[in-house]
Structures are given as structure tokens and as C-alpha cells.
Design goal:
There is one protein chain. The protein has 17 helices and 9 strands. The chain is of the alpha+beta class. It has 4 domains: about 110 residues, Rossmann fold; about 110 residues, Helicase, Ruva Protein, domain 3 (Orthogonal Bundle), CATH 1.10.8; about 160 residues, Cathepsin B, Chain A; about 60 residues, PGBD-like superfamily/PGBD (Muramoyl-pentapeptide Carboxypeptidase, domain 1), CATH 1.10.101. The chain is elongated and about 90 Å long. The N and C termini lie far apart (about 70 Å). The C terminus is likely disordered.
Length: about 475
């Protein structure tokens, strides 16, 4: 604080009026006898004497109350009474209330109108725009010592979408995203890491923004005091080799360093088949998310209803789940399920189309009411890795299973892995995830080129579902009667 001012900072205002006044006195270094600690009159008298003394010395006293939306009505009344401490020419105490939007609602109550009328200035921090959010994150990282870009442009767009531009939420999401990238030994934070971080913060799963109703929302804040956690690996001066696009469980050997891994060398499109850009231009009116999910649901024999219920919620009602990822064609071949792809044409416009078939040289997409065959090279020029598939989880859900877990899903996992290996179910096996099951999971992951960690995460479960799927399940590889384990 400047020499001509004293500041009393109250960080936790959930107090009784005597506790509130006592906290102010303690902040200002006012000695309070024990017998006076519970007396409002004694505390106000002591505070008034200190304020008059400071005024005589040419000092200003400022009271700052953080999280002021938590102030009780009786404490707010005491705040109003403190504004009565004045000389003939000026107030002895300047009061600054900082809080969330609920503070405005609180001060709008009829019973607090006298306090509201004494407020001389109101400042509301509106949510940041997308450009402001990106600049804010970059600034915080520079202050923390970063010397290069850490969040991709796509990741920053996801931060904006999922935080609603609220700095407090931006801080929390970025903090968790940095921690997530650090634990995965990655030097770049991408959009899927941000979505996963937001899911941990808000306790729900977030899908890419191009999926209908996939966005997150948040309310604005009046003031913020938070810090971004930046791990040392992000802050170095030396050039850093950027890791491949993070595909949560897929081992790096299964993908190329590019955002979209091509399965083999691209085959040129046939002379009679129009290029993908021409198809997108011709049928662009039929490539919005609702059209794509309508077609994907139809492949599964389901009816899709465009409207107020998002497609993934509709899938849940049919016992299916959405799996959204930024990945590669190799990954799609592993999961072996028709997928909604997010394509970008040469004008920059986004299109959602259903991939119904895929091999090493050709892909087939549903466009204009027909199956259109295109070359892999043509597809990868317009596809940057975003996709959604549907899969059927076990009845208990799809949360990760790891060593020590105890549930009926553990038995499902053990039996499923035995089936993949052509073995009968072990009727005597329990419901505890033991070291033997860890080894089984690791063997499966190794065989299917997943990250080998012994944890049955979402991708491992999707791959198991692909390996065990029956003939009623739609496949990408049309020569398959089963999935990845066939």
C-alpha cells in the first residue's frame, strides 16, 4: 500500500458483525481488549478513533471486502453504518466490495436500498471476447515465464467456449489443462486436453463445439484473483520438439506426427469421381451436424430427432455413447465404426459428413443421398482429425477402470478380454481389478497399438467393444464381421 494509505483486506466475509469489525481492526493494527471483542459499540469506537487519527495525519483508510456476495444482511447493514463515519468534508473510510454477479442481485434487494444508494461507483467485468481470452492466456503465460506458444489456437477457442469468457473459469480450465499436458509429457496443449480439463472442472463431459449443443456456459464475474499454474517444462528458452497431436491412449507408433495420420500413401481420385471439395460445394446444404447425425443414427438403425435434445443424449437412450476425439484414420480403423467427420473446404467452411467405409486407399462418405467414394489423400486435405463415433458401453458406464477397482464392470472387462483371446469366461473370477487383469489389459493395448498403461480407459473400452461387436454392429471395414480383434 502507498505510504499515505492503509488497507484492510477481508478475504472471507462469512462472519457475524462483531467478527467483521474485529477483522477490520486486526487488519489495521488496532489493539482490541478481549472484553471488547464482542461489543459492536466498543469496536466501532476504536475504529472511529483510528480513522480520525489517520485523517489528521493525512492518511486514507481503505476497506476491501473480497467475495462480498457472501456477506450476510446483518454485516451489510454494518457496512452501511461504517459509511456514516465522516468529517464535515469527507468520508473517513473508503469501502470497496468485490464479488461475483450475485453481489449485484444482493444489493438490489429492497431492504438494502439505503446501502445501494451510497455506492458511488459500480464496475462490472463482462466476459471476455475470443480475442481477449487468447490475449489474456498468453499474457498470463508470459508473466509466468513462458517464451513460446503453449496453447494451440484451437485450444484457446475451446477455452473461450467452455469458460464463457469468464477469467476465473479461464484460469481454472487452463490450470487443469496445463497439469494434464504435463502429466502426459506433452509440450503443447490442444483442444482435446482443454475439453478433458473442463470436464474435470465441471464434472461433465464436453464435446467439440461443432456438435449441436456441445457448448459450455458460465456466468460473468465482477472481480477475479487467481493464478495459472505453469509447469517448468513449458517455460524453457530452448526450442522444443512438439509432440504429435495428443490422442489420449493411442501410442505414438500408431500415428504420424501430423494432426491426421494417413494410413498409406494417398491414391489419386478416379477420373470420373468428382473431388471432395466439389462434392462439398454441391451438397453443402446437407452437411450440417443435424444432417450428419441423422445419417449416423440411421446406420445404427436408430431415429434421430433434430431439436432441443443433443445427439449424444439421444444416443444414451438407445444404450450408446458418443466418443468425440481429434485423432487419425488409423484410429478410426482401429475403432471400426462409422463416424461423423468435421471437414473444412477450400473456403474455410465447416461440413459434417458421415464416413461409412474406409480401407487403405479409399473412403466412402454419405453425401447427397448417395455413397461417394473418395481417395484418402482427398479426404485428408479437408479433414483435420475431428470425429465422433457411437459405441456401446457396458451397462455400468464407461468410466476408466484401474488396479484396485471393484465392480461388476471389472468382471465384464475380464470376461471380454478372455473372449477377445478366444477363451471362455472365468466363472470363478471376482469383481476386483487385480494385477492379473492389469497384465491382460496391457497385452490387449500392446496388440492394438494403444498406450500401454494397464488402465481400461475410454479408448481401450471402445477398442474392446470393436473387437467383440456382433454382425448387427455397423463397421467401417466392410470385410469384417467383427471389430478390431477379428
Amino acid at each position: 500500500a502507498p505510504k499515505h494509505a492503509e488497507i484492510a483486506l477481508i478475504l472471507n466475509p462469512r462472519m457475524t458483525p462483531p467478527e467483521f469489525l474485529l477483522a477490520i481492526c486486526e487488519e489495521l493494527g488496532i489493539a482490541v481488549e478481549q472484553k471488547s471483542e464482542g461489543s459492536l459499540k466498543d469496536l466501532v469506537d476504536l475504529l472511529s478513533f483510528h480513522l480520525l487519527k489517520a485523517h489528521a495525519e493525512g492518511k486514507r483508510i481503505v476497506l476491501v471486502v473480497d467475495e462480498a456476495q457472501n456477506l450476510g444482511a446483518d454485516v451489510l447493514e454494518q457496512v452501511r453504518l461504517l459509511t456514516n463515519l465522516e468529517t464535515e468534508t469527507q468520508k473517513l473510510l473508503q469501502i470497496i466490495l468485490i464479488g461475483q454477479p450475485e453481489l449485484r442481485e444482493l444489493l438490489g434487494r429492497v431492504e438494502l436500498r439505503q446501502l445501494a444508494q451510497r455506492i458511488t461507483g459500480r464496475y462490472h467485468l463482462d466476459p471476455l471476447e475470443s480475442e481477449e481470452t487468447a490475449a489474456y492466456v498468453r499474457h498470463r503465460l508470459r508473466v509466468a515465464g513462458a517464451t513460446r506458444e503453449i496453447f494451440t489456437s484451437g485450444a484457446l477457442r475451446e477455452v473461450q467456449r467452455l469458460s464463457g469468457g469468464v477469467p476465473r473459469l479461464i484460469n481454472i480450465i487452463c490450470d487443469r489443462a496445463l497439469l494434464g499436458a504435463f502429466t502426459e509429457d506433452r509440450h503443447l496443449v490442444r483442444s482435446n486436453v482443454v475439453r478433458r480439463a473442463a470436464g474435470e472442472v465441471f464434472g461433465k463431459n464436453f464435446l467439440p463445439g461443432w456438435i449441436p449443443w456441445a457448448g459450455g456456459s458460465a456466468v460473468g464475474a465482477v472481480a477475479i484473483a487467481s493464478a495459472l499454474l505453469v509447469m517448468p517444462r513449458f517455460l524453457g528458452d530452448d526450442p522444443v520438439r512438439v509432440a504429435p497431436a495428443p490422442v489420449a491412449e493411442v501410442a505414438e507408433s500408431a500415428i504420424s506426427p501430423e494432426p491426421v495420420a494417413v494410413v498409406t500413401a494417398a491414391a489419386p481420385a478416379t477420373g470420373t469421381a468428382p473431388g471432395l471439395d466439389k462434392l462439398l460445394a454441391q451438397y453443402g446444404a446437407e452437411t450440417d451436424p443435424d444432417d450428419a447425425f441423422n445419417k449416423l443414427f440411421a446406420v445404427w438403425g436408430l431415429r434421430y430427432i433434430a431439436g432441443n435434445v443433443d445427439p449424444c443424449s439421444q444416443a444414451l437412450r438407445a444404450g450408446l455413447e458418443c466418443f468425440a476425439q481429434r485423432g487419425s484414420l488409423a484410429q478410426l480403423q482401429l475403432f471400426n465404426r462409422p463416424a461423423v467427420l468435421n471437414l473444412v473446404d477450400f473456403t474455410g467452411r465447416s461440413h459434417q459428413v458421415v464416413l461409412t467405409s474406409l480401407d487403405s486407399e479409399r473412403a466412402r462418405v454419405d453425401l447427397g443421398g448417395a455413397q461417394r467414394e473418395i481417395g484418402i489423400g482427398d479426404l485428408t486435405r479437408s479433414w483435420f482429425g475431428d470425429y465422433v463415433i457411437l459405441w456401446r458401453p457396458t451397462a455400468g458406464g464407461s468410466s476408466p477402470l484401474a488396479l484396485g477397482a471393484r465392480s461388476a464392470r471389472v468382471k465384464w472387462l475380464r470376461d471380454s478380454l478372455r473372449r477377445v483371446n478366444g477363451l471362455p469366461a472365468d466363472e470363478g473370477a471376482g469383481v476386483v481389478f487385480d494385477s492379473a487383469l492389469v497384465s491382460m489389459v496391457e497385452d490387449f493395448q500392446r496388440k492394438h497399438r494403444l498406450a500401454v498403461d494397464g488402465i481400461a480407459g475410454i479408448q481401450t473400452q471402445v477398442a474392446i467393444d470393436a473387437a467383440l461387436a456382433d454382425s448387427k454392429t455397423p463397421f467401417l471395414r466392410k470385410d469384417d464381421r467383427g471389430g478390431a480383434g477379428s
